[in-house]
Amino acid sequence: MQVGILGFPQSGKTTIFNAATRGTAAVSAYSSQNKPNIGVAKMRDPRLDTLTQMHKAPKVVPAEVVYVDMPGAPDEFGKSAGIVGELLSHLQRSDALMIVARGFEDPSVVNERNRIDAVRDIDEMLSELAFADLAVLERRVQRVKDSFKGAKQTERAGLEKEQALLEKMQKELENETHIRHQQLTPEERKFIVGYKFLTDKPIIAIANVGEEGISKVDALDEEMAARFAAQGVTTGALCGKLEMELAQMSPEEETEFRAEMALKGESGLDRMVRLCYEALGQMTFFTAGPKEVHAWTVAKGSDALAAAGRIHSDLQRGFIRAEVMGYEDFVECGTEVEAKKRGKLRQEGKTYVMQDGDIINVLFNV
To answer: Are residues 109 and 213 both part of a single domain?
Structure first.
């Protein structure tokens, strides 16, 4: 999973990036850089620890989220013309987008927007994504119209179909219906995949509050959820600066500090990984044995064949069947031998719908 982080200048998006990845990217004057920061967050999962202990495996591989902190926005950003060029290309390559909005007061950090209003900034950023898609649609519609001039009769039907689809999408987007929520057929969805529209991607919105606003995080969470639920935006609020500082500590020091500060709930890293999972509709399954325990991600509702492909393309290509047991069943049984005796280790075909926590062994022949 790759998540692109974007935001208006001085929103603290690089601070959020550092909190999410335990990174140390420079947070001052970053807007002048042209290359993105790239970091990986490993998902903490107690089930992975348990499986590792039970198998006494020397190697453990957690599920990961790749975060890409987008380089500084151009001068036109925020004026309905700013998501173009390299910035647009970076965003199009992401599986999901994370909008960071400023919710902190800090006289030492210039506020170019002359106000602190995270909800309003998120609204405006969503509009920027829509404007970027509209520009792509307009260019493509014009290209299709131009193609009619030299098109053969056999080609005209396809061009007419494409033009009708693109113009329908354009009209709905102008009426503030993001492409992800437009009523498109499976065939139409397949057709537009290559366009990589920004409003067709899952979106996470983070309000980056200051330490003075930590006590109001829960209330802001509720406000954001209520405001953006209808648009399908996954939301959250946290103190990026504090979470970035905690992310640089050892796990033991971080736990102790959180206890002293009476900080409840997940760390910023864990929370953002969870929000990304929710937005992308992902779940976790495992492969486990005496050599390695590995956590994998797959979209909810995926079948065993798709899960096999996540592990290796050869497993998907030569799939015969899968041996599957639930995590809870394995823990209760203690060993695979006991799981077989109790009928908890099942033989499943390629159409089996995977469940969160499944432990799978794929039998294949290539």
So the answer is: yes
Q: In CATH, what number is assigned to the domain containing residue 226?
A: 3.40.50.300
**Cβ(274)–Cβ(266) below 8 Å:** yes
Residues 6+ away with beta carbon under 8 Å from 44: 62, 270, 273
In a domain, 147, yes or no: yes
> Same domain for 167 and 232?
no
Q: Select from 198, 228, 245 the last residue of a domain.
A: 198
Q: Residue 357's domain spans which residues? A: 301-364
H-type alpha helices, 175-216 = 186-192
For residue 216, what pLDDT is reported?
86
Q: What span, in angstroms and rounded, lies between the C-alpha atoms of 2 and 66? A: 5
What was the pLDDT predicted at 27? 81
- Quote the tokens at residue 260: 């002293």
> pLDDT value at position 112?
64
pLDDT of residue 10: 86
Q: Which residues of the chain have pLDDT under 50?
A: 30-31
Strands 292-299, 59-61: pairing kind? parallel
How many domains are there within the chain?
Answer: 3
The one-letter amino acid code at 55 reads H
Say what the pLDDT of residue 80 is. 54
Residue 72 shares a structural domain with residue 178: no
Residues 6+ apart with CB under 8 A from 289: 55, 57
Are 354 and 207 within one domain?
Answer: no
What does the block give as tokens for 190? Answer: 């397949």
Radius of gyration of the chain (CA): 23
pLDDT in tens, 184-214: 999 999 999 999 999 999 999 999 999 888 8
Give the pair of three-digit tokens for residue 167: 């113009």
